[in-house]
Structures are given as structure tokens and as C-alpha cells.
Amino acid sequence: MFPLLITRETDYALRVLRAISDGELHNVKEITDSQMLPQAFTYKIIKKLSNAGFLEIVRGAAGGCRLTADLSQCSLYDLMMAVDESSNLSACMDKAYDCAWRNAHGGCTLHCHLFEIQEKLNRELRSYSLRQLLNAP
């Protein structure tokens, strides 16, 4: 089994964006039904997407949410960061990570190689717009 890079939260966020990609106002029930998502989790995702500027939330009985971002200008990397996920291969890729090995030895060849791989991965995640991912091939 392989570790997941794109977690369920990012997958659900992609599905929410797919549901509202027409720019129209959609309520949460429509989104959850059409995308087969759990309603409680969908509210959490929508709030994160709203905070990141991907969509706006319209309150009230006739409310819902509507896409505000240009999906051709947003990458998969941007979406992952919006839902507070890390694309890091290892904890040591996080700048705030306190590595006992590096502290004791002054450097780490593993970190250096993983950092190179991480940079390539981040470039790849940034190279796909959400519009590309959501449109049919």
C-alpha cells in the first residue's frame, strides 16, 4: 500500500469545486448529493475553500456557495495548501521541523535528496490547473 499524498480532504475539495464550477449558486445538499460527499465534512471543506478565496458563501434560506476563483489560475498545490494539507514527503521538509540528526551532525544527505524530490513534486503539483483537472479529457 502506498501513502496518500492527496488526502480525502483534497479529494472532497476537488469534488466541491467540480460541483460549483459552473459559477452558479449551489446549496450544500445539491453538492453532497451530486458528488456523493458526507454533508458534515462538506461544510468544513466549503468553509476552508471560502477562507482561501475559492468560493463565496451566501447565507439564508436560498443560500449556498458559488465559485469565485479562476480555476485556470489555481493549481492543485494551491488547493492542497488551502485545505491545510502538506505535500511534504517527510516531516523534515517542514522548515519548523527540529531534526535531532541535523542538529547533531550539521547536515543530512537524506534531507538533501528528499528536498530535491520535494521541489520536483511541488513543481509538478503547481503545473496542473484545477480547470485542467476538472475538465473532461
List keywords for this structure.
137 residues, 6% strand, 51% helix, 2 strands, two-stranded antiparallel sheet, 7 helices, mainly alpha
> Nearest-angstrom radius of gyration?
18 Å
Task: Quote the beta fraction.
Answer: 5-15%
Order of helices and strands: HHHEEHHHH
Overall 3D geometry? elongated
Number of helical stretches of at least 4 residues: 7
Helix content: 40-55%
What does this structure look like?
The protein is mainly α. The protein has seven helices and two strands; from the N terminus they run αααββαααα. Strands 1-2 form a two-stranded antiparallel sheet.
Layout of strands and helices, then pairs:
Blueprint: H1 8-20, H2 28-35, H3 39-51, E1 55-58, E2 64-67, H4 76-82, H5 100-105, H6 109-126, H7 130-134
Antiparallel strand pairs: 1-2
Helix pairs in contact: 1-2, 1-3
Quick summary:
The protein is mainly alpha-helical.
